[in-house]
From TrEMBL:
Domain annotation Cytochrome c: ranges: 1-110
Top-level taxonomy: Bacteria, Pseudomonadati, Campylobacterota, Epsilonproteobacteria, Campylobacterales
Official protein name in the record: Cytochrome c domain-containing protein
Alphabetized UniProt keyword annotations: Heme, Iron, Metal-binding
A Gene Ontology molecular function term of the record: electron transfer activity
Stored PROSITE patterns: CYTC
Any Pfam family matching the protein: Cytochrom_C
Iron listed as a keyword: yes
Source organism superkingdom: Bacteria
InterPro entries named among the record's database cross-references: Cyt_c-like_dom, Cyt_c-like_dom_sf
Length: 120
């Protein structure tokens, strides 16, 4: 199963695929969790590793670990989001390669730059 398919099956019930920054205020009330484009952007920015390949490895590893063991002690989400949504429930019923592909997809599918841009 590819990353997007895992996302659709296991994550999309809570995480929207994408909410652009300029739509956030409008969409906020309908969210059950932070949208995945925002999570991808935040993790990539907060985890500071200068080598590109190692950066990808560390972010992907964090995501994999987080899905299995979400925690108050090391979330990187916005504090306000955690206060509002609470901590994510652990997802423990996926195959090992599904954790890997969905985490890689979250890293590769979104670009940090796109997030704030308005369509022309
Ligand atoms: C039942 C709802 C729910 C489902 C299903 C769910 N999540 Fe979450 N997720 C949340 C909430 C709420 C948060 C924000 C609070 C937090 O960070 O724990 C979150 C946060 C996250 C974060 C941010 C971690 C951080 O540092 O705070 C990642 C990454 C994530 N989810 C990945 C996934 C992936 C991948 C899936 C599917 C395999 C998934 N989630 C399924 C509710 C959900």
């Amino acid at each position: 199963m590819d990353g997007r398919a895992v996302f659709d099956k296991k994550c999309a019930s809570c995480h929207r695929y994408e909410v652009k920054k300029y739509d956030f205020a409008k969409e906020k009330h309908s969210l059950k969790a932070p949208p995945m484009n925002e999570i991808s952007r935040r993790l990539k920015k907060r985890i500071k590793v200068y080598d590109k390949d190692i950066h990808r490895f560390v972010v992907v590893s964090f995501i994999k670990e987080y899905i299995k063991h979400p925690s108050f002690t090391y979330y990187m989400c916005d504090d306000k989001a955690v206060a509002r949504f609470d901590i994510m429930p652990a997802i423990t019923d996926m195959r090992e390669e599904e954790y890997q592909t969905v985490a890689e997809w979250i890293y590769d599918n979104y670009s940090i730059e796109e997030y704030g841009k308005k369509p022309k």
